[in-house]
Each structure stands twice: as C-alpha cells, then as structure tokens.
Specification:
The structure is a single chain. With 546 residues, this protein is of the alpha+beta class. The protein has 13 helices and 23 strands. Helix content is 30%, strand content 24%. 54% of the residues are buried. The strands form 6 sheets. Strands 1, 6, 7, 8, 9, 11, 12, 14 and 16 form a 9-stranded mixed β-sheet that branches. Strands 17, 18, 19, 20 and 22 form a 5-stranded mixed β-sheet that branches. The N and C termini lie far apart (60 Å).
C-alpha cells in the first residue's frame, strides 16, 4: 500500500507541476491600472495558488528526495561551509601604503567539447541547454555561435584582504556549486589572504546548463525518488547538469581565480556611468530600471599592462532565445570583445538588477537572418556607451566587503520539489515541516563612494532605488515598509551585482507578489518573503560594519 501511495503521489506531482507550467505559459500579464476591475479574478488566482501550494507541499512530505537519508541539517544546527564573512568592520581611512591592485583572467568553458550525432558532448556525456524545465527531455546543444566563458577579477587596496569575483556565462549557479568552487580554492585563499570569493552568472538561457533547470522534468520526478530510496549518489539522478562538465566548471573557475590573483598589479581606479536607457525595457509594472551602465576602470601604473574594466548593467541576456540549442553568451560576449578590440582593455561584465528587464532592440540595425546578429548589435551598442564615458571619479584606495548568511523560508513548493529531487544544488535546512534556503548577501564599498550590493538572485530594481507599488495598487493590499537599499547603505552611489553566490530566483517586494498563474516571475521565485528577509539582513549587515 505504501508503494502504491508513493506511485500515486508521483503521478499527481507530475500532473500538478505540468499544469502549473502550462498555465503560466498561457496567462496574460497583469496591469496595475486594471487592478480594481480584476480584483475578483486576482482573488481567484491567489486561491488557486494556495491550493496548488498546499497540494505540492503535501507531495513534498510524501515523495522521497535527495534528503531521504537525512542529508539536510536542521536549521537550528546549521553551520555554513565555505562561507567568507569578509571584513568585520569597514575601514574608511586612506593609509600611507594604500594602493589599488587589480588582476584579471578569463577562460573558455567549452574546451574539450566534442561533436557527435548532431550534438555536443563532454567526455562522451550529453549536455543540456540552460533555462526552464523541459517536460520530457532536455534541449541539447547543436551549434556554437560564440564562446561560453568565465571572466574573473581580483582586487585589493594593498592594506586589507583580496576580493575575487568570477563571472560565468550561464543561466544560474546554486550555492552548493559555489561552495565547491570555494572548497577548491581553500588553501590558495589562505595563502593569499583572500577574504571574499564571489561567483556570479550573467543569466544567459543560451548556454550549457550549470544550474539544473534544463532538466527533463517528468523523468526526473519519476526516477529520482526511487534512486533516493536506493541510496544512489545524486550524480546518478536525472538533472539538467552533466556532472563531468560541472567538474570542469569548478576547476576552470578556480584556475581563473588563481591566475587573476597572480596577475594583480598596482594602479589607479576610476568610476563612471553612462545612460543606456534606450536599450533597456521593463516588462513589469512598476517600470523601474537603472538607466545606466556602470564602469570601474583600472589603469595600471605600468603602461605596458592592459587596463581592466569591471562593468555592470541590469538587463536580461535573452536575445539569443530562451529555447535555443545554439550556444551563445549573448550580448555580454560582444561587450567584452568589442571593448577589448577597440581599447585593449580586459573586461568583466556583471549582471545588475534585472527582474523583468530585457533588451530593447528597436533602435538597432542588424540582419535578423544571421544567427546572433541581434545580440552582436546589442553588445556593440552597449560597448560603445561604456567606451564613451568621460566624466569619471577617481576612487581612493579603500576597499571594504562583508557577507552575511540569510535564511529564506521557501514558499514556492514547486521549486522546493525541484531542489529536493536533486535538480538544483541549493543549500536547504529543515525547518519544522518545511525547508529554509540558506543563502547569502554581501556589500562591497570602493573609495568610500560607490557601494555594491551582492544579491543571490534576480532582484526588483525598485527594492534598491525606490518606487515599490503602493498598497492600494497591489494584489495583497499590503504596504512595503522598508526603505530602498540605497538609503540603507548610506553611500553616494549604490550598484547591484545580481545572481551572485546563489540563485534563489526572482526577488520581489512582498506586497507585490502576485499569482504564478499570471506571471513568469512568481513561478520562478523561491519565496514570497525573500525581499523582506533580505531587507532585514542587509540593514543588520550595514549596521554591523559601518
């Protein structure tokens, strides 16, 4: 009877999750101006959300997952592994021996791929493309348009520890895989006084999967629970990631960190920004964007050395398509290549606050019959804006960084199911009958002038800079009672490095959390409480270090 119940539960899970994805794909977009008219409909959707959540929650308690043998710790006993807290207190003075030092390295993640029977393999194993869950089988790469890379910088002010940041062309990376990269660097970090190791992605759908969401959903939900019962290693589970390729990712990223640290040289650091709003489009109300591209430009004292640019912009890299089988790093690749060819500078491009923000291609000219022409045009246009920055601020050689763990209650039961079934290597802890995601946030400050909030997902820009919907225009009828993070940070300029050190999905203001039946963001959000949890943690972090 128990086996029969588990079999029924598996079938119900498949039907429930499939229906949720189908409903989301076919639903229309909610508009703020229609809130009053749609109140009854919205209430119905929210009731449906609760019904689905309750049903999948029950299935999560019945179906064995990768925690079958008790591998998930209890929240009260959790101790973070491979966590780097950074500085206990921020230092604001410029010391006599203060001097900016920056290093750079990059590498391809595609070395070693082989083409056979119409698809690319790694060490004879099939690879999946990144992106949303596929019903029956993953999408396999059939063509390479450009390169999937990791670009890494190392930075210090010569008086404190070194900060490293590896930025990967990929859809997302979970905390468990970031921990593996940090573990591979543990000895090197101790020897080289590295106080912060950061790994982020640029959120391209057109890359090889390193998160796990490119998995074939139905086979995973049918087979993985039984593998769990048998005590099989999670590498045997059906998922989007290829274990051999992930081993390559970990070693390649770790190597670029070591090379970037060894490449560090003394010089001067400048910050500048430029408007690029004509290329940025917000698909979701309230329409709040960061209209600027940002650039930290490092100029070495040795004129023979290349400049290093750390650039940031907040817009999705989805021009190459969300269901493609062609590998492309999208427009970030062409930003890096265009600037390097024109100026000789080595470039790291970082994803900003990009919740529902994508590229606006209307003003660009390109031949849409040529694969990749649109993203090449976008990359060249954004590179042109970054190269046009003239008004720069010289930053004093003062670098501070701190990190803090955050404990986010998972309210999206579908995502919990995906994590428990081994698709996404997130860090979970048991919390009563449910689970809490153990993640982290960070804050870096350069020259006492420019701050960077380090966020483990795709965050709403209004959380950082203001403009959250008033309660009378929300589905929930509630207010958002936290100040913008830029105000909390108490810094002249606040930037955002998103999708860093984890991927907990979309981070929406709690009061603007709508229905998964009408929005793309809600189905890919881990928690309806993520924003308020992060707001509280960020305020605590700032109070502690400043």
């Amino acid at each position: 009877m128990k086996r029969f119940k588990k079999a029924i539960a598996l079938v119900l899970a498949v039907l429930m999750v499939s229906s949720c994805f189908a409903a989301t794909a076919s639903a229309g977009n909610f508009k703020i101006d229609d809130a009053t008219k749609q109140k009854a409909e919205n209430t119905l959707y929210m009731v449906l959300d609760k019904v689905v959540s309750a049903a999948v929650s029950a299935l999560n308690r019945i179906i064995p997952g990768r925690d079958w043998s008790g591998s998930f710790p209890d929240i009260d006993n959790y101790k973070p592994d491979n966590f780097y807290p950074g500085d206990a207190k921020f230092e604001t003075s410029v010391k006599a021996d203060s001097k900016w030092k920056v290093g750079f390295s990059k590498a391809s993640l595609l070395d070693g791929l082989e083409f056979k029977n119409g698809t690319y393999l790694y060490k004879g194993k099939k690879l999946n493309m990144a992106g949303t869950l596929e019903p029956l089988k993953g999408r396999h790469p059939t063509e390479i348009i450009d390169d999937q890379q990791v670009c890494t910088y190392a930075i210090s002010d010569s008086t404190g520890g070194t900060v490293v940041h590896a930025v990967i062309d990929g859809y997302g990376i979970a905390s468990g895989d970031v921990a593996s990269i940090r573990a591979a660097l543990s000895d090197f970090a101790k020897k080289n006084n590295i106080v912060s190791i950061n790994v982020s992605v640029l959120h391209q759908h057109s890359c090889i999967d390193i998160l796990g969401m490119g998995a074939p959903l139905l086979p995973a939900l049918l087979l993985n629970p039984f593998l769990s019962i048998l005590g099989a290693d999670t590498d045997k589970f059906i998922g989007g990631k290829t274990p051999e390729f992930m081993t390559n990712v970990v070693s390649t990223v770790a190597s670029t960190v070591k090379e970037a640290v060894k490449d560090m040289t003394a010089g001067t650091l400048y910050y500048g920004n430029v408007d690029a709003s004509e290329y940025i489009y917000d698909k979701r109300e309230p329409k709040v964007i960061d209209p600027d591209l940002h650039r930290f430009r490092f100029v070495p004292d040795d004129s023979k050395e290349s400049e290093i640019w750390i650039c940031e912009g907040g817009l999705h890299a989805v021009g190459a398509g969300i269901s493609t089988t062609k590998i492309s790093a999208d427009f970030p690749y062409y930003i890096r290549e265009t600037i390097n060819k024109a100026t000789g500078a080595d470039v790291v491009y970082v994803q900003g606050a990009e919740l529902a923000i994508t590229g606006n291609y209307d003003s660009l000219t390109y031949d849409d019959s040529v694969p990749g022409a649109n993203v090449k045009a976008m990359g060249e246009a954004l590179a042109g804006r970054l190269m046009s920055i003239k008004d720069e601020t010289k930053l004093d050689p003062v670098l501070n960084i701190a990190h803090q763990n955050v404990y986010i209650k998972i309210t999206n039961q579908i995502l919990e199911l995906a994590i428990r079934e081994g698709l996404v290597n997130s860090t979970l802890a048991k919390n009563g009958s449910g689970f809490t995601a153990v993640s982290e946030i960070g804050y870096m400050e350069l020259g006492n002038k420019v701050g960077v909030m380090i966020v483990p997902g795709e965050i709403s820009p209004e959380l950082l800079w203001g403009g959250v919907i008033e309660k009378e225009n929300t589905w929930t009828g509630k207010s958002w009672d936290y100040p913008p993070f830029a105000e909390t940070a108490r810094v002249e300029k606040l930037l955002c490095f998103g999708l860093a050190n984890d991927q907990i999905g979309y981070i929406l203001p709690d009061n603007d959390y709508r229905s998964m039946f009408t929005e793309n963001e809600e189905i890919n959000a881990g928690s309806s409480e993520a924003a308020s949890t992060i707001a509280k943690a960020f305020a605590e972090l700032i109070k502690k270090v400043k």
